[in-house]
Amino acid sequence: MPTQAPDYEPRLRELRSTDFPPYFHEHEGALFHSHGDSPYPLPVHGPEWNRLNVQHSILHQLHPEPQYIGVVRGALAPGPEAKLAIDLCTGTGKWAMEMARAFPQAWFRGIDIVPIATRRPLVNVQFELQDVNATPYRWGPGTVDLIHARDIALAVENYTKILEEVARILRPGGLFVSVEWGMRPAGVSPSTGALVHAPSMAHFFDIVKSNLAARRGLQAFEQNTVRDLILQNQDFSGPVTETIQVPIGSWPADEDMQRFGRAFRAAHRYFAAAITPFLSEAVDPVDLNIAIQAHVHEMMTIDGLVTEYYATYARRI
Ligand SMILES: C[S@@+](CC[C@H](N)C(=O)[O-])C[C@H]1O[C@@H](n2cnc3c(N)ncnc32)[C@H](O)[C@@H]1O
């Protein structure tokens, strides 16, 4: 690997320990980002890192090799020019780090508004503080081979604008990969084969979605949301969406799936706790508490529940 990255920028400097505190603020005993403009409603502290890492690890293990390697292999294959990949809203940076290990000849960048990724990244990884909504990014037109955007729906003010920026910096043939999750109960009962019915979970997610929309202007993503937005942009070809089902709870017969299901249910329970400070600013606390308890009760008792992840990829023309 060449010693200088293709996107070397001499003005970037490493954060010192004293630079970290201003990126965070405390509210109801949790740490949130302090970025004035971002609509992002979730905490950015340890338990949330754990939730993100659990989700990452389950999605990773549900795929045979590091995630989406089938579609990214071509985009990152060694060639005459160094390959560059960017992870939007990187969070703890797990995806960037694992991909960098799998593709040591490529360079990876992760952007976020809070410095929560490791301070000791691999040599081909760099984490940068950058607001995903503040375009243009620092990369020039047609200079990036792969852009990965997982679970960014709650951070993005205008996804159409992000796609325009992605199209600007991707090389022709470069790949955009999005992964978002459906905020609603789904699945099929293993005993009856009927669609699962989880009205309290649906009610809880309706509260979440209506508050996100009304108070932060955020939309929850359905299976075809990203695909449809990509289709409106003339710069991409062939968006393909794959649905990945992750079990919630210990109902699967397969032992590995059972383990994922348990861990994923814990992550879902944590999500309810994480979004509570945001919801309780507008929802009656007694009603909210009842809604969350009923939501958790269904998660604990209904077999066949899954969360759907929608992985969509498209190429820059
Ligand atoms: C749900 S997490 C997903 C993290 C990661 N992509 C993953 O899949 O594990 C969303 C991330 O977006 C970040 N974020 C929120 N608003 C942002 C913004 N305006 N620009 C960049 N990152 C943002 C948050 O700090 C958080 O790390």
Q: Find the structural class using helix and strand composition.
A: alpha/beta
Molecular shape? globular
Q: Characterize the biggest β-sheet.
A: 8 strands, mixed
Bound molecules: S-adenosylmethionine
- Our count of domains comes out at 1
Q: What is the CATH architecture descriptor?
A: 3-Layer(aba) Sandwich
**Tally of separate helices:** 8
**First and last CA, distance:** 28 Å
Q: Could you describe the 3D structure shown?
A:
The protein starts with 23 loop residues before the first strand and ends with a strand. The protein is globular and about 55 Å long. By secondary structure, it is of the alpha/beta class. The protein is built from 8 helices and 10 strands. Strands 3, 4, 5, 6, 7, 8, 9 and 10 form an 8-stranded mixed β-sheet that branches. A two-stranded antiparallel sheet has the order 1-2. It has a single domain, classed as Rossmann fold. The protein binds S-adenosylmethionine. S-adenosylmethionine (SAM) is lined by residues 33, 38, 40, 44, 52, 56, 89-91, 111-114, 131-133, 150-152, 155. It comes from Pluteus cervinus.
Write the layout of secondary structure elements.
Elements: E1 24-27, E2 30-33, H1 46-62, H2 69-76, E3 84-88, H3 94-102, E4 107-112, E5 125-129, E6 144-150, H4 159-169, E7 170-181, E8 186-187, H5 199-216, H6 225-231, E9 236-247, H7 255-280, H8 285-301, E10 305-316
Parallel strand pairs: 3-4, 3-6, 4-5, 6-7
Antiparallel strand pairs: 1-2, 7-10, 8-10, 9-10
The site of S-adenosylmethionine (SAM) has 20 residues, from α1 and β4.
